[in-house]
TrEMBL record:
This is Large ribosomal subunit protein bL28. Belongs to the bacterial ribosomal protein bL28 family. The lineage of its organism: Bacteria, Pseudomonadati, Bacteroidota, Flavobacteriia, Flavobacteriales. InterPro entries: Bacterial_rp_bL28, Ribosomal_bL28, Ribosomal_bL28/bL31-like_sf, Ribosomal_bL28_bact-type, Ribosomal_bL28_sf. One of its GO terms (biological process) is translation. HAMAP family: Ribosomal_bL28 (MF_00373). Coiled coil: none annotated. GO terms for cellular component: ribonucleoprotein complex; ribosome.
């Protein structure tokens, strides 16, 4: 499975390693993902999601229900 946040769609970015001599080589910045279980009281069930840590902070702030609703509106969840 690809390294993509299931709620926000965050994924790897491409950039350069830059040496002291300013030589540039390609590199990849992976998203900081963790696998986390969330309890959804409306559906009375546990859901396991692979989310970015920045998304986890958002979930702590607005709640899992609001985060899932927002992800559905943006099209990340069907």
């Amino acid at each position: 499975m690809s390294r993509v946040c299931e709620l926000t769609g965050k994924k790897a970015m491409v950039g350069n390693n830059v040496s002291h001599a300013m030589n540039k080589t390609k590199r990849k910045f992976d998203a900081n993902l963790i696998k986390k279980r969330f309890y959804i009281p409306e559906e009375d069930k546990w859901v396991t999601l692979k989310v970015a840590t920045s998304t986890l902070k958002t979930i702590n702030k607005i709640g899992i229900t609001a985060a899932l609703k927002e992800a559905r509106v943006k099209g990340f969840i069907k």
